[in-house]
Amino acid sequence: MTLSIIIVNYKNPALLRLCLKSLERALSPKLNYEILVVDISSEIETQNVVLEEFPKVKLLPFKDNIGYTKGVNEGIKGSSGDYFLILNPDIVPLKNSIETLLDYMKKHQDVGLAGPRLLNFDGTPQQSCFGFYNAITIGYRRVGYLPFKKWILKKFLLEDRDLSDIQSVDWLMGSALMARRDAINKVGLMDEKFFLYFSDVDWAKRFWENGYKVVYYPLAKIYHYHRRFSKRSSWIIDVLMNHQSQQHIKDGFRYLYKYGFFPPKADPPPAGKTQ
Prior knowledge:
The chain is an alpha/beta fold. The chain is 37% helix and 22% strand. It has a single domain (3-259), classed as Spore Coat Polysaccharide Biosynthesis Protein SpsA, Chain A.
């Protein structure tokens, strides 16, 4: 099996149906691939979507909310591909985008992780890649209004880069990630201490530490719904009331505990523009 596509779904049958239909349209019938849906807190509606409408898709249902990170790992363990494409259910790939990304990975054996250019449905680009976090950037990303925020986050958001170029980056948005099996065998699965957030950051750091590049590949383009929960007027109220905000903070503290408040760059450091 060449490619295993792993979709981690959480109570979102409508978007999952759209994602699976878009994969049918986007993928070449010549590609040797499988699709696995890891369904977290699995419900009958989602199970029916997969089993009745997409019978070739493998369903891995979990009654409990095992979290995004463990969901990815269970998908990897249950698949047989030489390469993995890890997707959120709110992803709609353009035709040939997946094969384009896969071909790049095949030609560059030193690349362990690669990610596409994520687009809004109006065609405008989303933030697809980042610099590594430290205590300051985590705080500034979480709190809505702080002095010097734009200056502090400029490097983290790679605003000094031309993101139309193929290039090495610190880490990639986990909504759409391609990895090679032999690299994962060396690096290991995602760290399940991170329930929902920061597992993609941690994974990329470990790929760099094990001698693999992490590459942003904008020639592959994928639509991403990326529903944002409305921000409350006060970030304090947001933290107190929003479960996702609370989980982001918990996983952020786990990341800082693991790497320190100002972690050093991975070795070797990301290089910038590549081929």
